[in-house]
Amino acid sequence: ARLLERDVLASRVREVEEENRQIRLQLSQSQGLAAQPERANHSECSRSPTAEKCELIHVACVCAGHNASRDVVTLVKSILFHRRNPLHFHFITDTVANQILSTLFQSWMVPSVQVSFYDADELKSEVSWIPNKHYSGIYGLMKLTLTKALPSNLSKVIVLDTDITFATDIAELWAIFRKFTEKQVIGLVENQSDWYLGNLWKNHKPWPALGRGFNTGVILLYLERLRRIGWEQMWRLTAERELMSMLSTSLADQDIFNAFIKQNPVLVHQLPCFWNVQLSDHTRSEQCYTEVSDLKVIHWNSPKKLRVKNKHVEFFRNLYLTFLEYDGNLLRRELFGCPSQLQHALEELDEDDQCYDFRRERIMVHRVHLYFLQYEYTPTDDGTDVTLVAQLSMDRLQMLEAICKHWEGPISLALYMSDAEAQQFLRYAQASEVLKNRKNVGYHIVYKEGQFYPVNLVRNVALRNVNTPYVFLTDVDFLPVYGLYDYLRKSIVQLDMANTKKALVVPAFETLRYRLSFPKSKAELLSMLDMGTLYTFRYHVWTKGHAPTNYAKWRTATTPYKVEWEADFEPYVVVRRDCPEYDQRFVGFGWNKVSHIIELDAQEYDLIVLPNAFMIHMPHAPSFDISKFRSSPSYRYCLTTLKDEFHQDLSRKYGSAALKYLTAQRNI
């Protein structure tokens, strides 16, 4: 049955794709339409036989925190998948959700989609006086303030909870506004549980409601009319009156909406129940449809979410999971057949260039979802805090628990993953006791696109989202010595890094053993080095990468010492957060860290080796990109070309001071 349901969904996917293709074809043939596809009032659009598909649809959502920000992405995907109209999303957010969603939409670059944000903090005073028992807290009351929060010239909006999944084009819901009578101002679906009937348990006393009441997970708000009748004053008077006996709300804004409708039934337009099929326990949702194909909107309004009981829950769950793991890059398709800025940039590239794929990667814009999991950080008072910065993909997940055990300070990790892999990571993190208990780790998803691993772009995402004054730039397959976090903070003070340009080098070693008794001190490490259990990092394949660290001197050093830059030097360093970013032209294997150290040296950073710091590289299978480098002459040719272009850019930035890097490279 599950396979059959997936086949039905796959068939629907193909149908929608074909419908969208036909619509784009019609629209592209409409004279002048391609000029400004996002303007809902474009004159040619209004005269088009497909004018309704040009109308701009407004959607509002209240979203606060890390978890709700993840949920709203699935909602948006389901809307974008079916839509044929330009959209304008209005998000009422806290600071966290604003940062996450603004970055996501800027990097997603979905055509014919506008996004606006409104500060929930500025609205809290409007509803903070209302006692509320609902788990959504104060944000569960924010929908009452939309006439004030949203622009005064916005006349209509669809308001959605974050736990909604669309199974049809949202334009069908928008069209219901035309069915409102002159007095109707709110469109709602009847509540599908017995909550407002007051018979769920003994002494159950719900807020007053009209009949079964209405559910506010999906609302059509006629803002213009609501403002005209004095909505803000009316809902306040309703809430004040009922709170005298009810003392608090149980279902947040829904209780107040229902009490208002009870007093003013002429103002509500009842929507067909398939526009909000409510999957909470004890609902009558199965009476809303005879076939699952009749469904329009699914509402996961039970705290149990996907574990809720329902005869067709497997179908609903599969539909939800499809959008949860759906490749968001596919939703970048052009609605009206107009090329995007990205497409224009790609068209300017020479497809006959042997390095076309490399150059394409450099202008590719990857979707980024910051703080995928809960994140908490409290700055230190002494201004010496340092964040471990690294990047990884799915095949390095097993390193996360070990790193968290070795490093107690804040961590910023960028993970290069597909939408489906991001959900696998979420399940992995939620099942790990170690990761669940660490709130000072920022996980930032960079979604996969293209054939290369954009390693430096991913590193930069982790670097940009650091909250400490200093960063430890490392790779995820290295484990730092226990206590390195505290040692680095002391070194930062001793070496006056706040007032000088220094890059503190953490010497790198490696083991070929998958099981290692990790050395707890420098003395233990030196003993293991002498016994052949450990080696200096890459001494047998790439000595130049770390030779300038001067391991012989490090063995006996008791104080920090300065080393000079040499060609191909790529140490792991601690620097101020305002250091240069990694050069994103280098993708896959080769020169991605070397180029960064060159930039540090060009900006006159002193390279200082720390005498009691070290890190050990743990063994793993070779990456796909290093295999391509070794097997492909074209890959190696393009890497050489990119190096030459990098040196040219260095010369433009640093003048004659950059000549030493080019000379050193030619002497290799």
UniProtKB/TrEMBL annotation:
Pathway in which the depicted protein is active: Protein modification; protein glycosylation
UniProt source species: Cyprinus carpio
GO molecular function list: glucuronosyltransferase activity; metal ion binding; xylosyltransferase activity
Topology with respect to the bilayer: Single-pass type II membrane protein
Reaction equations catalysed: 3-O-{beta-D-GlcA-(1->[3)-alpha-D-Xyl-(1->3)-beta-D-GlcA-(1->](n)-4)-beta-D-Xyl-(1->4)-Rib-ol-P-Rib-ol-P-3-beta-D-GalNAc-(1->3)-beta-D-GlcNAc-(1->4)-O-6-P-alpha-D-Man}-L-Thr-[protein] + UDP-alpha-D-xylose = 3-O-{(1->[3)-alpha-D-Xyl-(1->3)-beta-D-GlcA-(1->](n+1)-4)-beta-D-Xyl-(1->4)-Rib-ol-P-Rib-ol-P-3-beta-D-GalNAc-(1->3)-beta-D-GlcNAc-(1->4)-O-6-P-alpha-D-Man}-L-Thr-[protein] + UDP + H(+); 3-O-[beta-D-GlcA-(1->3)-beta-D-Xyl-(1->4)-Rib-ol-P-Rib-ol-P-3-beta-D-GalNAc-(1->3)-beta-D-GlcNAc-(1->4)-(O-6-P-alpha-D-Man)]-Thr-[protein] + UDP-alpha-D-xylose = 3-O-[alpha-D-Xyl-(1->3)-beta-D-GlcA-(1->4)-beta-D-Xyl-(1->4)-Rib-ol-P-Rib-ol-P-3-beta-D-GalNAc-(1->3)-beta-D-GlcNAc-(1->4)-(O-6-P-alpha-D-Man)]-Thr-[protein] + UDP + H(+); 3-O-{(1->[3)-alpha-D-Xyl-(1->3)-beta-D-GlcA-(1->](n)-4)-beta-D-Xyl-(1->4)-Rib-ol-P-Rib-ol-P-3-beta-D-GalNAc-(1->3)-beta-D-GlcNAc-(1->4)-O-6-P-alpha-D-Man}-L-Thr-[protein] + UDP-alpha-D-glucuronate = 3-O-{beta-D-GlcA-(1->[3)-alpha-D-Xyl-(1->3)-beta-D-GlcA-(1->](n)-4)-beta-D-Xyl-(1->4)-Rib-ol-P-Rib-ol-P-3-beta-D-GalNAc-(1->3)-beta-D-GlcNAc-(1->4)-O-6-P-alpha-D-Man}-L-Thr-[protein] + UDP + H(+)
Protein name as catalogued: LARGE xylosyl- and glucuronyltransferase 2
Free-text function comment from the UniProt entry: Bifunctional glycosyltransferase with both alpha-1,3-xylosyltransferase and beta-1,3-glucuronyltransferase activities involved in the maturation of alpha-dystroglycan (DAG1) by glycosylation leading to DAG1 binding to laminin G-like domain-containing extracellular proteins with high affinity and in a phosphorylated-O-mannosyl trisaccharide dependent manner. Elongates the glucuronyl-beta-1,4-xylose-beta disaccharide primer structure by adding repeating units [-3-Xylose-alpha-1,3-GlcA-beta-1-] to produce a heteropolysaccharide. Supports the maturation of DAG1 more effectively than LARGE1.
Keywords: Coiled coil, Glycoprotein, Glycosyltransferase, Golgi apparatus, Manganese, Membrane, Metal-binding, Multifunctional enzyme, Signal-anchor, Transferase, Transmembrane, Transmembrane helix
GO biological processes: protein O-linked glycosylation via mannose
Annotated localization: Golgi apparatus membrane
